[in-house]
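Appendix B. Raw example, untouched.
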Amino acid sequence: MIWFQVIVAITTVLVGVLWFRLHPLLVLLAAGLLVAVTTPTAGLEQFAVTEVEKGNWTEKTAERFVGSNPAARLASAFGTTAGDVGILIAMASIVGICLLESGAAKVIVDRILSLVGPRGAAEALMASSFVLGIPVYFDTVFYLMVPLARSLQRTLGRDYVLFIMAILAGGSLAHSLVPPTPGPLQVAATMQIDVATLMLTGLAVCACSSLLSMLAARVINRLVDVPLRPLTDFDNSSDDHAGAEVPAESLRLHQTGPPLLLSLLPIILPVVLIGLGTAYKMLDQRPEITLTDRGVALLTDKNVALGLAAVVALTLLRYGPASQAVDGQQARRGRVIQQALASGGTIILITAAGGAFGAMLRQAGIAAVISQLVTGTSSIMLLVVAFFVTAAIRTLQGSATVSMITSAALFQDIATGNELTFHPVYLALAVGAGSKPIAWMTDSGFWVMCKMSGMTEAEGLRTVSPMTTAMGFAALLVTVLGAVLFPMRG
């Protein structure tokens, strides 16, 4: 029964997204409701018993759960997921928009490029995309970076494919491995992994994977040549982020942007605060909770940390256009916040719907079936299984975030159990790595990269598709090595 539910639910997602071109929010909610309606009472009772045995529920809570209707269970799971990640995504959206609007993002990119010079231009683009990919969604990172790649090709006369692949290697991996982007956030919530642990471990794995991926980028650059074509769809745009041509002089430091340290502060601040909170918990062994403990817990809370980063990011808006007039600044702040919340709100809804869909699968008993299926499989092989399951879903329906959410739900009980010989953060990273292969026609990011870089569809399949595959396997390799060498579990 459960496998039939899973097949029908995933088919619903694929058909809805690929065939009917429906919004992922509607498709995920429909699939979740379908699973909820078809789950028998015996399955709900078994799930409730498990939750009581774990100490998560009381007998009365379990009784109310079994007696609830499918729509109510779906809505409850939707609300729980939105509560877990909603504030984080909203604050991250504000940080990302402010970095772009104030010129801070360009300051970071230009400074890195000025330090390494033309010979290290590809690595500079990769590093810049990596830094910006932490708070900014990948499509936006690519909008920002591709004019620089085009300008570098005009200046150097070579390696255009390498520059495009370098942007992909940095920004796309950060999008799938490092919170506060939606996919890693939801994986952390589903697998009950501390956000700071995933953030710090993800940064290390992402940095190593990006460097390894550059080897594939250089091979692809040798095999495929893409000319610098005019972007007719964007030629009338004056916005650098929308793909307009940028003169070579713009590779120098952006004079009207904020100072470099201030530009980096909204990115560094939440990482430092959340990391300090984790370190404090590890060092503080006192059984009683003091006033200091409460203060540190509040300041280093993930929502507060991202909120402070958003406040700092908003102060950057005094730089750039309309920075002199007070009324101009106020109007600009209002517009930026509205724009950020509009885009972030859509992501929150999709993520919450995906979380609700995953919860319905868990209530139906998918975790027990997966556990039985992989019984006897080594912990390291579980990483490989999680990678390929996620990669299959990603390749079929195109969305890295949806594939991560779906796969995390399938492996939740394994992550929260005690069977793994390493920290479950590595299972989360294996899921993130699996969300990379294979970018092709079903992926909106594939079309963004092709159109913004001037590639044809055939050139995209010869460059972007193998590059994302190489990135996924590089991230899996680093994750497996990390699990073996630094298991972080006694």
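End of appendix B.
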